[in-house]
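Chapter review: from sequence to fold.
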Amino acid sequence: MSQVENKVRMATTVCSKCKTTVQLDLGDLSYDEAIKMIDTLDNSNREFPGFHVEFGGWRKRWDLDNAFDLAYTEKEKFGSTIVHTIEILSENEGKKTFEGFDCSKEADRYLGSIMSKPNALQRNRIYYIEKNRVGEIIDKDTIY
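The token string follows.
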């Protein structure tokens, strides 16, 4: 009979309010599952006995994005389905979303196809929005 090995993976960070070290056991969560768990943690009530009680806001207070990012190797993150997203919003063409590690090439080709159309910039506002793995906007441009 084989035993199931429980993987121990710890994310370590420091509370910005009371400077207490926090360790979160991520167990055998994949990188995707861990990143999604940040939202659950961010909206939950927590207490540091003798220090403070909070009703949310843990993502920023514990710097969870960075702590979880450091808990995984680049190889583990590479296999992740949560990468980054590029959205191109065009008043004439609608919204087109690209996801993946190397989605910028495909997005640039699509953008080029929009711009090559006759009168592409007349009455057409085009927005380029790039988001990181957790959905935060890291680049936003208005092309026209």
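Two observations follow directly from the output. The chain has a mean pLDDT of 78. The first helix runs from residue 31 to 42.
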